[in-house]
Amino acid sequence: MNPFNEYVETLQCAHMESEFNKYQEAFTNHKRIIILGNGGSNSVASHISQDYMKFHGKKVSILSDPSMITMRTNDFGYDYAYQKFLEYYVEEDTLVVIISSGGESKNMLNCVDWCEDNKISYGVLTGFKEDNTIRQEATPFPFMVEQVNRLFDEGNHIIIMTARGRGSGIDWTDLTIQQLDRWGVKYHELEPMFHKPTADIFIDDKGISVEEWKKTVPPKKGIIAGAFDVIHPGYIRMFKEATDYCNHLTVALHEDPSTERKHKLKPVQTVEERKEILLAIQYVDDVVVYQKEETFHEYLKHYDIRFLGTDYRDGSYTGKDLSIDIIWLTRNHDYSTTKLKTDIYNSVKGPMISGVYYD
Predict the structure, then answer these.
(1) Any idea what DSSP says for residue 311?
(2) pTM score, two decimals?
(3) Is there a contact between 240 and 283 (Cβ–Cβ < 8 Å)?
(4) Architecture of the 3-137 domain
(5) For range 64-84, the mean pLDDT
(6) Do 304 and 246 meet the contact criterion of CB atoms below 8 Å apart?
(7) In sequence order, what are the beta bridge partners of 36?
(8) 112-123 pLDDT tens trace
C-alpha cells in the first residue's frame, strides 16, 4: 500500500478530515518540503522523507547528518540549530513539517516562531499532552476575531462551539479557553466539549456557512495592486491569504507599469483580459484600473487595509503618507510572471523559427 494513502486512512478513521484536508492542500501545493524532529522524531522524519520522494516526487530535506547537527549546535546553540537550518535551506515554495511529540522542545518552538515571523507554510505533528506549548502556537483569522468581538460589543450573546476532541475523546476545554483568551476573543459561553458533532455537511434551518456569513457583516475593504499579467498559483495564494484579513478584496490593476518604470515588463495581455481573469477568481470581489500612481493614491483613501510584499518594507511604495493599515505578505513560493514568460518563450521559439504556426 502507498504509505501516504495509509496515513490518509488513519487520519480519516480518527475523524480528522478537516485537518487532513488542510495538510493535503499544503502538501500538494508545495514542491519542496523540510521535515524536522529530535531523537525518535528525527528517525520518523527520515522515513517520511523517503516516502515523499519515492511516491510523490517531492524535493525533501531533513537535518539528520551528525556532522551538520554538531556544527550548527556548536556555532548557534542547540536551541537555534534547526532554525538556522531553515534560514539556510528554506526557499520559495517550501513547506516545513515539524515533528515534536512532547511539544515542548525549545528548538522546535523556535522553528515554529521563525516560520510564523517569515510567513513560511508549516505544519506540526505533536501529541502526548493536550496543553503542550506547541499546540498553543495556533493563530486565528484576524478578521473573524474582529467580527465576533463586534457582535459581542453590539449586545449579542456569543456561544463558542467546537468539534475538538469529538473523534479522539480528548477534552480540549482548558486549552480552548486559554487560546480564546490569548487571541482576545469576546464570548459569553463555551459549549461543553463533545456537544458539536463532526460532519462534512450540517443541515439546519438557522445555519449559515462562514463564507456566506462574511458577506453579510459590515465590509472591511482591502486592496492589493499589481499588473497581474499571466496569472499563476502564487497570485491565487496571495489573494486567498488577503481574505484572512478582510471580507471585500479589490485588485488595483496597473495598466502598464513599464511606462513609468523601465525595468518593468510590458503586459502581454490587455487590461480587459486581465480584468476578466481576475474577476473570475473567487477571492477577488472587484477590480479597479489605474495608470498613474496619483490615481492609485486616491483609490487608497477609500480602503481599510492594503496588502504589500515584504520587499516594499524599505518604504518605496505609493501611499506611505496615508494612515491605512498594511499587511505584509511574504512570497514563499517560486512562481514568477517573468520566469513564466521566459519559459513560454523558450518552449515555442524553436518551433516558431522552424515555421510552425499556432492557433
Answers:
(1) G
(2) 0.59
(3) yes
(4) 3-Layer(aba) Sandwich (3.40)
(5) 89
(6) yes
(7) 98
(8) 888 877 778 888
